[in-house]
Please model this.
Amino acid sequence: MTPPGSDPTSRSTTPSGLPVGDLLATGPVTSGDDIPVSVLAVGAHPDDIEFGCGATLARWAAQGCRLDFLVLTDGSKGTWDPAADPATLAATRTAECEAAAAVLAGASRASVTHLGAVDGELEDTPATREAICRVLRTVRPEVVFVHDPWRRYRLHPDHRTAGFAVLGAVVAARDPHFFPTQGLAPHRPRRLYLFEPDLPNHVEDATGYEQAKVDALWCHTSQHRSTMGAPADGDDHPSGTSPREAFAAKVATQLAAHGALVGLPSGEAFHRIDAV
Model:
């Protein structure tokens, strides 16, 4: 485990400690952080959190970590069906999100906040950052998960925007002169984990929690054919393999690739930021 405040992948071997930052340098990928008391996981869409850090959240929740979820858009464009009603789809995806969060949290406490921005139209504005800042100062998480906004060749604008907006809100939440009319005390998370990382520098062990990740993702029934690429019943798929089993195999393959970075059989990779 890397000592708090250090980051061997994103900092040089002789860190200056200056706010302008140091030269990027490749380095070891760490694993095995202590279990935080509380987490805020933020996703652009109703299923992004489960894809990005579902197994880690399930493992931490099983060890007593409190989970809070923040979903920034309504998911109303998340279908390939041109005849689908966006309002109906948004309501469906909200219910799916609530069910998935309950799967990951298990017996632990979990809450889900929906910011309600229109899918595909999320903007990193002062109003967006103020809304996220309010959530940060209210739930006061020790750790924050969100999309890595610097991932190269990313197509979906909401993922980039979510990452930048949350990082901007983290800065706002920690500093008292941002949004003082909220009447809420500043809050500084201890660590940030960027999922879908462009430059992974940390892996959390997912061993034993692969099924929880799959179970949570499978709650998003509206996404089986599109985002998840799961064949529908009656479609061609390997003999004896159900659509759910085929999807679970894809998840297992990715978790194995992430875990291999640090010699684990299964893991979730992140870019961890300690200097918050």
About this structure: The domain at 35-273 is CATH 3.40.50.10320 (Rossmann fold). Residues 1-13 have pLDDT under 50 and may be disordered.
